[in-house]
Amino acid sequence: MSDEKGMIKLCGLWQSKTKDGVGFYSGKLTYSSRLLVFKNKFKEKDDKNPDLIVYLAEHKPKEKDSQAEDPGF
Description:
- The chain is mainly β.
- About 10% of the residues lie in helices and about 35% in strands.
- The protein contains 1 helix and 4 strands.
- It is flat, with a radius of gyration of 16 Å.
- It starts with 13 loop residues before the first strand and ends with a helix.
């Protein structure tokens, strides 16, 4: 679905932290994939490197998610 400015919404993102305490955002893109967005730790002041790095990762549903998707027919 697009809005009046021609943009297409991909997904919502939630703020989280790694086990090491590094902050990032993640969101489910499709049933089998999710986006991960991290701050670029190599970014230096006034350089032209990106502020954020986006990764596409495989989404491994939890057992509960798998059962919810299977209608049992």
